[in-house]
Design goal:
517 residues; alpha+beta; 10-stranded mixed β-sheet; 7-stranded antiparallel β-sheet; 8 helices
Length: 517
């Protein structure tokens, strides 16, 4: 209720009344905009990559320019470097003088600043602004003012929704216009100045793209100038094709920086293998980031689980800057967590309490140890992550004597073995030995080197201490266990018999870090 002082002038009373009525609307708008994260800092091209002969920042806007003296021989693109996009809403403002341009999304980088994929078109002319055009692909998918369903072999069913001229009349020439792109599953929508200009349902499973890069186009041809500003994006939950309640899940895999000797701690190559092996899992979208914590501020938006395969301890990506705070928000929302090998270790006083809660256990220095030994796993608990896993033995740097939640509350040991006494031949040290672990092994206490956990709110987690030796990803059961865990922590259904995958010698040798070679 708005109480109006009778002695105030009527106009002022009216203004107060309107302010009271519109305040909630303004608050909702501000809250909505807060969900969007900027992709351009307004000062330079940090986070973007393009031919410097054509791209620069002028007047606070990304600017692409060609002249008669300096034309581009073909379409050239400014590529956003910080990662792929899947389901999202992108907002920006654009201005164009002569020529035509566009915004590439879910696209492929063909090298040398050449990009192909979906494009939200715009131009200085009167025909193409707002259409959906597939660069280096199927061509025009949707004309302006249409809603189009695309089937296999580029067969299209088009419905006229709005007259093209009406939409063109709302576009300002040589001035700033707003562009919105919404991609959810196979449903793609373009808007200019608030008007829907194109809507596509892409049912061609062979040709459509569900994720890919973002890029801005500078078209070949006559001299032109195109500018972009206020570029911001919001990730949304990934959707399965054409279903209202999809159940589709998103896994975000984070690889750490190069570390150790060649063939060890191959974080980037390991994550790429995991992504390749998960491609057959229905309703699971997998996004990978490399060389540490993602520079993409939106990397974890819409995630159902996050995996870290990286160096830990004081260099763990999760404990740098404000990352624990950001992860806390994800964990509070029930996002799953998987930590592989060194990534299960964080300092006791920074990350220890959080990992005990989120992961169910962690490597605590002066308590846990990190010897290399051959562990033999003969039995497994009845748990989704063990589906299809057969007895196996692998030599790895299997950490043990982990710091778990008291009485293993919410923790299910998955891989358990008794380490030989030879694993404690080193002297006591932060990682090599301590009185507590020596007593445990002397008593014959078995040790848990992989575990699944659940926490209040429904979040799931999996800790896996193996993964030092890259060659071990070639072991079918070693690999299956981790793949199953990724699916399970994302609250997706682990396939009967576990995640089926193969890894060839060539695939195992691919994508290894240079490491000073």
């Amino acid at each position: 209720m708005v109480l109006i002082n009778r002695r105030l002038p009527a106009v002022l009373c009216g203004l107060l009344l309107l302010t009271g009525l519109f305040a909630p609307v303004a608050a909702r708008a501000a809250e909505d905009d807060a969900d969007f994260k900027p992709l351009f800092n307004g000062k330079d091209l940090e986070g973007w990559d393009g031919n410097p002969d054509f791209w620069s920042v002028k007047d606070g806007a990304i600017t692409g320019t060609t002249t008669a003296e300096k034309p581009t021989k073909g379409n050239t693109f400014l590529i956003w470097k910080d990662g792929p996009v899947d389901d999202f809403e992108l907002r920006l403002d654009y201005k164009i003088v002569n020529g035509n341009s566009g915004i590439q999304y879910r696209s492929k980088d063909h090298g040398n600043w050449v990009v192909g994929g979906y494009q939200a078109d715009f131009e200085a002319g009167d025909t193409y602004s707002g259409i959906n055009y597939e660069e280096r692909g199927r061509g025009v998918l949707c004309q302006r003012g249409e809603k189009v369903t695309v089937e296999k072999d580029n067969k299209k069913t088009a419905e006229r929704v709005t007259e093209s001229k009406k939409l063109q009349d709302a576009i300002k020439k040589e001035d700033w216009n707003s562009y919105v792109i919404i991609a959810k599953g196979n449903h793609l929508i373009h808007k200019i100045n608030g008007n829907v200009t194109a809507e596509v349902i892409d049912n061609d499973e062979d040709k459509r793209a569900m994720s890919g890069i973002l890029a801005l186009q500078l078209h070949a041809g006559p001299p032109m100038v195109v500018q972009f500003k206020n570029i911001r994006i919001k990730r949304i939950k990934v959707a399965d094709t054409g279903k209202a309640d999809t159940g589709k899940k998103k896994a975000v895999l984070v690889a750490g920086r190069p570390s150790h000797a060649p063939g060890d701690h191959e974080h980037n190559a390991g994550v790429l293998l995991m992504k390749k092996c998960l491609a057959s899992v229905p309703n699971l979208e997998v996004v990978d980031y490399h060389n540490g914590w993602p520079t993409d501020a939106n990397a974890f938006d819409g995630a159902d689980m996050v995996l870290f395969y990286a160096d830990g301890g004081g260099g763990h990506p999760a404990i740098q800057e404000d990352h624990l705070v950001r992860l806390h928000k994800l964990m509070e929302n029930g996002v799953g967590l998987v930590c592989v090998h060194y990534a299960v270790e964080v300092p006791k006083d920074k990350g220890g309490p959080e990992f005990l809660n989120w992961l169910g256990g962690y490597f605590e220095t002066n308590w846990s140890v990190n010897p290399h030994w051959t562990a033999k796993f003969e039995t497994f608990p009845n748990h989704p992550v063990t589906q299809g896993v057969k007895p196996f033995e692998v030599n790895d740097e299997w950490y043990y004597h982990m710091r778990f939640r008291d009485k293993l509350v919410g923790v299910t040991p998955i891989l358990t073995a008794l380490p030989p006494k030879s694993t404690l031949e080193r002297g006591d040290g932060p990682h090599s030995g301590n009185p507590a672990v020596r007593e445990a092994i002397a008593k014959g206490e078995v040790q848990h080197v992989a575990w699944a956990s659940e926490r209040a709110g429904g979040g799931r987690a999996f800790g896996f201490t193996g993964g030092h030796n890259h060659r071990n990803w070639g072991d079918d059961n070693f690999r299956k266990l981790v793949l199953n865990a990724i699916v399970w922590t994302a609250h997706a259904d682990v396939p009967e018999g576990g995640v089926q995958s193969t890894v060839s010698k060539e695939e195992l040798a691919a994508n290894l870090d240079p490491k000073g070679k």
